[in-house]
Amino acid sequence: MTKTVVTKSNKTTLITSTLLATTLTTTPLVAGDLDFNIGSDSVRITYADPIGSADYGRKDVTIGALYNKDDNFFIDAGLHIIDEAGNKFPGLELGIGPKAYLGQTDTEEYLTIGFEALGNYRLLNMNRVIFSGYGYYAPSIVSFIDADEMWELNFRVAYELIPSASAYIGYRKIRTKVNVKSERTIDDEIHFGIKMEF
User: How far is 91 from 95, CA to CA, in rounded Å?
Assistant: First the structure.
């Protein structure tokens, strides 16, 4: 019997195909947001799909992919509950929810399941300007394969070109701890992007 050898290239192709298939089968069903950004060494795309309203706010499902020149490739999926902060903080929107990462570098593979918190603030006197940020953390207990811990920070400033599209500049940093007690930077750079609503 012939043994099938799963190479790194094959795994990357499989992950990419799975991501594209999932995105293509879910995108036409409900209107959502497409977020695309590039840096000097990386590219990231994320699709967010509202799945209905909660008792307070809304629920969004997200799926995305990140690739950079160091051959780091990650896909992610998350679920967020998002709502306005209240009358005392007009223009401020907050959210939280679980998020999972699956990916690989040149020497390791990662699976982490953590929580992400996010915030968006639209200036009242310049309502086309939006400040956004989010943070993700997965401790050791929910980090698997070669991962021992993972965290991500992301900040951006956006300008709403039209009601359904905005352009932004942002900064992102992703780091992981691996089982050999070392740390690896997955991404650390400024990026430019666009976000479109459908």
Answer: 14
What are the per-10-residue average pLDDT scores of the chain (198 residues)? 46 50 48 92 94 76 93 94 87 95 91 97 92 97 95 97 96 91 88 94
**How many domains in the chain?**
1
Give φ, ψ of 8 to 5 degrees.
Answer: -60, -40
Question: What is the enclosing helix (H) or strand (E) of 22?
Answer: helix 8-26
Per the document, the length of the chain is 198
Sign of the alpha-carbon torsion through 119, 59, 149, 64: negative
Where in 54-124 does DSSP place strands (E)?
58-68, 73-84, 92-104, 109-122
pTM above 0.85, yes or no: no
Q: Is 1 within a domain?
A: no
Residue 115 sits in which domain range? 8-197
d(C-alpha 46, C-alpha 116), whole Å: 15
User: Over the range 37-68, which residues count as b (16 or more CB within 10 Å of their CB) and which as e?
Assistant: bebeebebbbbbbeeeeeeeeebbbbbbbbbb
Round to whole Å and give the CA distance between 136 and 100.
10
Return the sign of the alpha-carbon dihedral for residues 29, 122, 38, 100. negative
